[in-house]
Amino acid sequence: MTCEAARRQFDLYLYGELQFGEEEVVERHVEECASCREELSRCRSLHHAMDALESVPPAGLLQASRREFWSRVSRERVAPVGIVARIWSWVSRVTASPAFMRPVGAVALLAVGFMGARAWDSAKSKSEQPVLHVRSVVPDASGGFRLVLDEVRQRTVTGRLDDARIQGMILSAAAGSTDPMLRASSMDALKDHCERADVRKVLLTAMRQDPNFSVRLKAIEGLKPFARDPETRRALSEAVLSDDHPSVRTMAIDLLAGDRENAVIGVLQELMLRESNPDIRQKSLKALRASNASPSTF
Amino acid sequence: MVTGKGQALSAMMAASPVATEEADLVRAAQRGEQDAFTALISTCDQGVLRLAHNLLKNEQDAFDIYQETFLRVFRSLHVFRFDCSFRTWVYRIATNLCLDYLRKRKVRKEESSLVNTGQGEVLDRTAVVAEENPNLDPQRSLLSAELRDAVERVLGELTPRERLVFEMRHYQGLRLRAIGEVLGTTEEAAKNCLFRATQKMRLALGDFI
Ligand SMILES: [Zn+2]
After folding, report:
1. Same domain for B69 and B154?
2. 3-class SS at A297?
């Protein structure tokens, strides 16, 4: 191997990109040739000099980029809620169905898609850290400190749901606990009482916002007897189009299906445009056929 | 030299248990499972940001490349067909965006940022700005200012493709085969590109070392 041929290989050699045999030839030449040895070591220094020139992104840029990305994604995901509102408002103007007579603007839409729910989740997980109430900090003789803490004692209460105190606690556990198991069991406790507006409100909110899909499923289950209620149908429509969990979308379709209302047909037609899960597409198609509607857009 | 890092990264790009796990994550994300999507992105978003930042030497551009890359990933994940690894696919999107930026910048630079100092020297304003950026790695100060200037200059003189191949091989530690895959070309073409880049650098920097 000539010196020139050896030197042409130095960079690839340093990057470990030479074939086993090629590497062997370069190494043998360098062993025997002092001037190429020197050249290789200059080459190596140059590589090190380049290493030092890497500009590392400033601290915080990755976090900021991730935050912005998820917020953009959530805006894309939330878009279906706007579509539900459009379908609903159009229907309420063109149909005389009394169920849709109430103006759309009167119903506040909770524009929370799955990423919104996620943000909610992460905000909550912060508060999941045990909160210690420190009442006083006093230095002691050994050089340490004596802290007095206020701690909450565990207590058990029992009662029926018609007890306002019990009911209030279950409602607040269902809506505000950081523990998904507790929220789910609270949904179970509430599900036979959805004739009450405050119970329904908690179930609807959970269905739209709870970050845990099993809790959302329980909320939908609890709302079953009220599946004909316009507000419930609207929340179900939002779930069909924007919930990130296929089981939730499936269950929501089940509750909406068989309904020949134009709004529901519109939602299912919209779903056909965006749904990629084949089972759900099939289900939606079946529901549309059952309503003698076409799968194309309403 | 970043050989160790390089091998780890290219191992991730090759078919391996890691790749199978990745494919499972992709399928879950395609079904709409959000945790899977988050996990997938976190396997490569730091690399994409580093690539864009080192290549473009600018926080805002790196931030923009990050957004554009992952929004495209999000919007088209359902059409991802496993012809290559997820990571390669993401890098393909990111490098195409970076190439666009570099090409646009080259045009802009040719139009406006070359300043004649009047002493037969031409300064590149973008290089001067990069130089003044206090966020750049403090390690840089260990190098002589002269060498640093020379390196900035020669990096600016590489074609966008040469710059990209050099960046991925030298700083990201990707194997040439993976780089070829990312750029939609052969390993041989990537090798030639790298060869040209390093030759140019050796020619320009030979006096410093
Ligand atoms: Zn020699």
Report:
1. no
2. coil
Tell me: do B95 and B37 sit in the same domain.
yes
- Residues of B within 8 A of A274 (CB-CB) are none
* Total domain count, chain B: 2
Q: Is there a contact between A191 and A172 (Cβ–Cβ < 8 Å)?
A: no
Note whether A276 contacts B30, CB cutoff 8 Å: yes
CB contact under 8 A, A69 and B70: yes
| B chain contacts of residue A51, beta-carbon cutoff 8 Å | 1-2, 170
Is there a domain that residue B143 lies in?
yes
Which member of B32, B71, B137 has the closest CB to residue A244? B32
Residue A56 and residue B50: Cβ atoms within 8 Å?
yes
**Residue B110 to chain A, least CA–CA distance (Å):** 24
Q: What are phi and psi of A107, to 5 degrees?
A: -100, 115
Q: Which of the residues in chain A have pLDDT under 70?
A: 77-139, 143-145, 147-154, 258-259, 296-298
Task: Decide if B133 is inside a domain.
Answer: no
Residue ranges making up the domain that contains B42? 1-128
For residue B208, the chain A residues in CB contact (below 8 A) are 49
For the question of whether the overall pTM of this predicted structure is more than 0.80, the answer is no
Q: Say how far apart CA B3 and CA B170 lie, in whole Å.
A: 9
B88 located within any domain: yes
Give me the interface pTM, i.e. the ipTM. 0.75
pLDDT digit string (tens) for A98-135?
A: 333 333 322 222 222 333 333 333 333 333 334 345 56
A12, A40, A53, A122: which to substitute to probe chain B, counting the most B Cβ within 10 Å?
A53
CATH number at residue B40: 1.10.1740.10
Taking contacts as CB-CB distances below 8 angstroms, the residues of chain A near B151 are 49-50, 53
Do B123 and B142 sit in the same domain of this protein?
Answer: no
C-alpha R_g of chain A: 32
Task: Give the Cα separation of A279 and A245 in Å (integer).
Answer: 13
What φ, ψ does residue B67 adopt, rounded to 5°?
-60, -50
